[in-house]
Amino acid sequence: IQADAIAAITAATDERSLDDARVAFLGKSGTLTKASSVMKDLPKEEKPKVGQLLNQARQAITAELDAKREALIAEADAKSVADLDLTLPGRTLPTGAIHPLTLMQDRVTKIFRQLGFALATGPEVETEWHCFDALNTPADHPARNESDTFYFDSGKLLRTHTSSVQIRTMEETAAPPVRIIAPGSAFRRDEIDATHLSVFNQIEGLYVAENVTLSDLKGTLEFFFKSLYGESTEVRFRPHFFPFTEPSFEIDVKLTAAGKDAKWIEIAGCGMVDPAVFDEVSKARGNEAFGSDKVTGFAFGMGLERLTMIEYGIADIRHLIENDQRFLNQFA
Ligand code: PHE
């Protein structure tokens, strides 16, 4: 029996046929198991001898089974490694990329956070008061026209700029100082072309405290644009007009790192918060800590799309909303 079993085990070619051999000899009705049943009929003095022989056979067969099983596993392993073609190119999984507007917003936020500016938000559906009146914008100002602004039947509107967050923040703050930036969407009834979208993003900034000066404004924004676009970036302040700041400026930057014939590019609006804005917040909301006799401040606002287009040399603003993978994957 032992010799037959070892022959069957040796002949096995895989785990399945090896197990068949085990069952044939050691299983419940296997040859060796059956042979063991003669034990009970043997005379007493022969039992130890025969029992020992049967045990030896079982042990020998079991050892052979174990050895063969290991040999089969080793053989299968070797075969699967031999089948593995290590020269095949790897399979890459498709990965997403962070949108360039998000990349840029994160960078802007990080720089202002270094300067102690906190993040603030406000609603996109705004009241006329927060978007215009409190910002010293008269009722007949062109920005308030139905042809420029999306109005709801309720009289509310889609905010045309993030400057409304200036007002919201001062309303919600018990006492100065306020030092915030507010990134968010703005909406205008503009014709869509290479430089205009009707939904776009701005980053608003506001710093209010005792004795905030124009040199704080200039120093902060110069530091910001040099941090963003490189130390050699030139920054200039051109007098301008906004209803809610006085004096007001537009900021231009010249990216000298880009080359000799770099041009001045308009990039942001800013100014010293108009006293009328402080007085409106303080009177209308009973928040006297923000009275124009107590505080001064500066504010600024810039377009996130514009910052991003300048950084990456994007010629058409519509690339930023079309979700074309060929465009987006360049930022991976
Ligand atoms: N709200 C202005 C705009 O949308 C930008 C601005 C913000 C100007 C804050 C001055 C101060 O054009």
TrEMBL record:
<dbReference type="GO" id="GO:0000049">
    <property type="term" value="F:tRNA binding"/>
</dbReference>
<keyword id="KW-0460">Magnesium</keyword>
<keyword id="KW-0547">Nucleotide-binding</keyword>
<dbReference type="InterPro" id="IPR002319">
    <property type="entry name" value="Phenylalanyl-tRNA_Synthase"/>
</dbReference>
<dbReference type="InterPro" id="IPR006195">
    <property type="entry name" value="aa-tRNA-synth_II"/>
</dbReference>
<dbReference type="InterPro" id="IPR045864">
    <property type="entry name" value="aa-tRNA-synth_II/BPL/LPL"/>
</dbReference>
<dbReference type="InterPro" id="IPR004188">
    <property type="entry name" value="Phe-tRNA_ligase_II_N"/>
</dbReference>
<protein>
    <recommendedName>
        <fullName>Phenylalanine--tRNA ligase alpha subunit</fullName>
        <ecNumber>6.1.1.20</ecNumber>
    </recommendedName>
</protein>
<keyword id="KW-0436">Ligase</keyword>
<keyword id="KW-0067">ATP-binding</keyword>
<dbReference type="GO" id="GO:0004826">
    <property type="term" value="F:phenylalanine-tRNA ligase activity"/>
</dbReference>
<dbReference type="InterPro" id="IPR010978">
    <property type="entry name" value="tRNA-bd_arm"/>
</dbReference>
<dbReference type="InterPro" id="IPR004529">
    <property type="entry name" value="Phe-tRNA-synth_IIc_asu"/>
</dbReference>
<dbReference type="Pfam" id="PF02912">
    <property type="entry name" value="Phe_tRNA-synt_N"/>
</dbReference>
<dbReference type="GO" id="GO:0005737">
    <property type="term" value="C:cytoplasm"/>
</dbReference>
<keyword id="KW-0479">Metal-binding</keyword>
<dbReference type="GO" id="GO:0000287">
    <property type="term" value="F:magnesium ion binding"/>
</dbReference>
<dbReference type="InterPro" id="IPR022911">
    <property type="entry name" value="Phe_tRNA_ligase_alpha1_bac"/>
</dbReference>
<comment type="subunit">
    <text>Tetramer of two alpha and two beta subunits.</text>
</comment>
<dbReference type="Pfam" id="PF01409">
    <property type="entry name" value="tRNA-synt_2d"/>
</dbReference>
<keyword id="KW-0030">Aminoacyl-tRNA synthetase</keyword>
<feature type="domain" description="Aminoacyl-transfer RNA synthetases class-II family profile">
    <location>
        <begin position="108"/>
        <end position="310"/>
    </location>
</feature>
<feature type="binding site">
    <location>
        <position position="246"/>
    </location>
    <ligand>
        <name>Mg(2+)</name>
    </ligand>
</feature>
<comment type="similarity">
    <text>Belongs to the class-II aminoacyl-tRNA synthetase family. Phe-tRNA synthetase alpha subunit type 1 subfamily.</text>
</comment>
<keyword id="KW-0963">Cytoplasm</keyword>
<dbReference type="GO" id="GO:0006432">
    <property type="term" value="P:phenylalanyl-tRNA aminoacylation"/>
</dbReference>
<keyword id="KW-0648">Protein biosynthesis</keyword>
<dbReference type="GO" id="GO:0005524">
    <property type="term" value="F:ATP binding"/>
</dbReference>
